[in-house]
Structure formats: structure tokens, C-alpha cells
Write a structure and sequence with these properties.
By secondary structure, the protein is mainly beta. Helix content is 4%, strand content 34%.
Length: 208
Amino acid sequence: MPHSPAEPAPSTPAPAHHRARPVHWLATATALAAVIAGAGLLQPDPATGASADPERPTGHASPDQGQQAATVAAPDAHAVTYPLDCKGAPQAVTATAEGDLDGDGRPETVAAVRCDAGSGTPPHALYVLTQDPAKSGHPRVVATLLEAGRKQTATDLTIRDGLVTASLLGYSSPEVPRYSPDTKQLAKWRWTGGKFRQELTDSTPTGV
């Protein structure tokens, strides 16, 4: 299954970091939306054409699935190349969280990724990874929760009871230096109805 970002848009060039103006990193720009559409975690595997079980309820794992979740490792976030253009700089996974997001009894991984540029404050992107059931399967990106084009920094990333939460540090205006975010939002995502639905539950000024 190919990766499907929420709302792709044209990329723009990135000038160098400067204290007097914000850094514009080359990333997909997206608007803030109440609903984030992701690639279906239960979609057919493109390599095999196998279909997901249509009778399997989402959000509830059977006893066998629960036992399987205890033995199956979550996807390795460091074994993936992410759809994040860093203009030649390496990608850096700065935080991960693991848990069963779609109720199939197998854990997914959410990874906070940014460009390892060596200076400035590169924004984060948040990706959901799944592991193909086959023993030779590799982890792959199936959804994007946060686009780097939002120019936010993700902290306190967790998964609990199928709910992904993260604090998003951002900027109230283009004049705010990129090294000093002045807004903070608590964001939550849950897989329901075939997509990740996002809820921004809090937005406050911060002196970070």
C-alpha cells in the first residue's frame, strides 16, 4: 500500500537559517484540519494483493490477537526512509511511541522525525508505521499525522489505549524566531472510520 499524506501540496525552496526571520524548511505545506486522513492500516498489501479481513472489527482485539501483540515487536522507526525532503541532510528520529492503533492485535509505531540540519530548529513530522505480517516484512509508513510544513516541534509523544497524543510547539507569527516557539497545543489522534481524526484540545502561549 503506498503512503498517502493528509493533504499534499507543492514544496517550496528553503533559505538558510537566520535569527531575524523564520527558517522555511522544504516540506509539504498543509492547512490545519479537524480530520487527518491517513492510509488505511488494514488495506491490502501491495506486494501480495491480499485483502484485510472484512469481518474483523476495528478497535477490539480477539484473545489470539492479544497474545500475538505480546510477541510481535513494534516496527523499528530507525529502519525506515521517511517521505521528508531534507535537501541532502540526514533524517533524525527524535521520539517514538508504540501501541495497537487499529485493534488488529499488532502494535504500530508513531515516529517523530525531522531533518538533522545541525543548526536552527527543524520542524517535526509525525508518521505511523506498521509491520507487514510476513516474517520477511519490513516496517513502512502508512499515515502522516503531522506534516513538517506546519512548522511545529512535537514533544511528549505517547500512545495510550489507541490514542496518540503529542504537545506541538509553534509560532504565533512569522516574526517569532525559530529557536523560540511561543505557542503550545495538545494534539490527539485516534484511528476511527478508516482515518486518523485529530483533536486540538488546548492552545496556549508558552515561553519555551
